[in-house]
Design goal:
This is Isocitrate dehydrogenase [NADP]. This protein has 414 residues and is an alpha/beta fold. It is 39% helix and 18% strand. It has helices at residues 33-52, 66-73, 79-88, 107-114, 163-175, 177-180, 198-214, 233-248, 277-286, 298-311, 351-363, 367-382, 388-391, 402-411, and strands spanning 10-12, 15-17, 23-27, 59-62, 90-93, 119-125, 141-147, 156-158, 191-193, 219-224, 251-252, 259-262, 269-276, 293-296, 321-323, 330-333, 385-386, 398-399. It has a 12-stranded mixed sheet, with helices on both faces. A two-stranded antiparallel ribbon has the order 1-2. The protein binds NADPH dihydro-nicotinamide-adenine-dinucleotide phosphate, 2-oxoglutaric acid and magnesium ion.
Length: 414
């Protein structure tokens, strides 16, 4: 871990106290991570410099995770990294590789769970001029609140053929013989169990509804697969409606389950509704204008994030933040992964991490710098100076490298 000269961000009476030179830990990331991080840091520093003329500056603190950490320390997620995120509250990261099948379970998920960053906040909006596979990408303007600490990401899985799996199956057979009788091929089945709790649901849905109030949105949609998984996903829906009633005074509409309440901010009606997850994946294509804030479980949120990102032009500009609204801890990161086939080619779109940085600046209250990033991004796209993912779909566009796209954003801040 390198050192940084600055002061920590702190939480006082539930509000972030941000010094003029906050220490912000960052993880560069694996695969395309270093290319993307380099471009992003340039943009973030330029935005802060232009907005505050040297009065404010981020003191970046590199912390290690993933392959770089393993190569340097022998550890994939060193304690120093976790300590830095704990101490400095707000950080940012590039993507980290998770092998499929065997090997380590996701470092990304580990960070979210260890720091209890229970909300994965992923806003999805269209930037004018970005090529999209749908006819009206401008109708998509949604904010996903994905539950980040439960569901199968925090679940228990037993691999077929292991002693643990045999024990788990024996336990089910002895204690729940009727359920176990429904397992079609018990001798070769792997077993998975997912937890979904009332507390976990309540804090996530509460944050989503509060966001709708603060940002003057008209609806919050609970997305679940409760018709099949009644006591996990169905319970999420039920607890979600209860949260709206308990914390926001919502009352049922026409006998429920939809309910409404009056926003204390603007006096308008906010509707809480629900949609089953598979139907939602078609609704985001067919009726996107009807959805604003989405509160959902971990796996549904993972699927919906990528699908919605594609609707507005792709995963290259899909940002996010992992946030605990109670402790103030937050780590901002792209929706996409490490795209390893493009590693070290200075090729991919750094937009997702740059816009994650924009979210981070707004989270810190540095809105002037955040606004400059949006201005720069709009300008670079309007000038059709873009990376390969947009260039291949745009007529008459100029192909830029990852670093060049960062520079183009900076140029268009003026
Ligand atoms: N939070 C995190 O750190 C995450 C990590 N991961 C991990 O990343 C690894 C790779 O995952 P994979 O499933 O390949 O998914 P990726 O999101 O890494 O890549 C899938 C495709 O998305 C497009 N893409 C991704 N990033 C960009 C970008 N910056 N600019 C433009 N296009 C981009 C590319 O499409 P095309 O081929 O069309 O050019 C790429 O082939 C896995 O180990 C996975 O676990 C995955 C998601 C999140
Ligand atoms: O951690 C991973 O490897 C995947 C995570 C992911 O897909 C996501 O958070 O959207
Ligand atoms: Mg994902």
């Amino acid at each position: 871990m390198t050192t940084a000269t600055g002061q920590p961000v702190t939480l006082n009476n539930g509000k972030l106290d941000v010094p003029a030179n906050p220490i912000i830990p960052f993880i560069e990331g694996d695969g395309t991570g270093p290319d993307i991080w380099h471009a992003s840091q340039t943009v973030l520093d330029a935005a802060v410099d232009k907005a505050y003329q040297g009065d404010r500056k981020i003191a970046w603190l590199e912390v290690l995770a993933g392959e770089k950490a393993h190569n340097q320390t022998g550890n994939w997620l060193p304690d120093e990294t976790l300590d830095a995120f704990r101490q400095y509250l707000v950080g940012i990261k590039g993507p980290l590789t998770t092998p499929t099948g065997g090997g380590i379970r996701s470092l990304n998920v580990a960070l979210r769970q260890i720091l209890d960053l229970y909300t994965c906040l992923r806003p999805v909006r269209w930037f004018e001029g970005v090529p999209s596979p749908v006819k009206r990408p401008d109708l998509t303007d949604m904010v996903i609140f994905r539950e980040n600490s439960e569901d199968i990401y925090a679940g228990i899985e037993f691999e077929h053929g292991t002693d643990d799996c045999t024990k788990a199956k024996q336990l089910l057979k002895e204690n729940f013989p009727d359920h176990f009788a429904k397992v079609r091929f018990p001798d070769t089945a792997g077993i998975g169990i997912k937890p979904v709790s009332q507390e976990g649901t309540e804090r996530l849905v509460k944050a989503a509804i509060q966001y709708a109030i603060d940002n003057e949105r008209d609806s919050v949609t609970l997305v679940h697969k409760g018709n099949i998984m009644k006591f996990t996903e169905g319970a999420f829906m039920q607890w979600g409606y209860e949260t709206a009633k308990k914390h926001f005074g919502a009352t049922e509409l026409d006998g429920g389950p939809w309910c409404t309440f009056t926003s204390p901010k603007n006096g308008k009606t906010i509707t809480i509704k629900d949609v089953i997850a598979d139907a939602m994946l078609q609704q985001i294509l067919t009726r996107p204008a009807e959805y604003e804030v989405i509160a959902t479980l971990n796996l549904n949120g993972d699927y919906i994030s990528d699908a919605l990102a594609a609707c507005v032009g792709g995963i290259g500009i899909a940002p996010g933040g992992n946030i605990n609204y109670d402790t103030g801890h937050a780590i901002f990161e792209a929706t996409h992964g490490t795209a390893p086939k493009y590693a070290n080619q200075d090729k991919v779109n750094p937009g997702s991490v740059i816009l994650s940085g924009e979210m981070m600046l707004r989270h810190l209250g540095w809105n002037e710098a955040a606004d400059l990033i949006i201005k720069g991004m709009n300008g670079a796209i309007a000038a059709k100076t873009v990376t390969y993912d947009f260039e291949r779909l745009m007529d008459g566009a100029t192909l830029l490298k990852c670093s060049e796209f960062g520079n183009a954003i900076v140029k268009h801040m003026d």
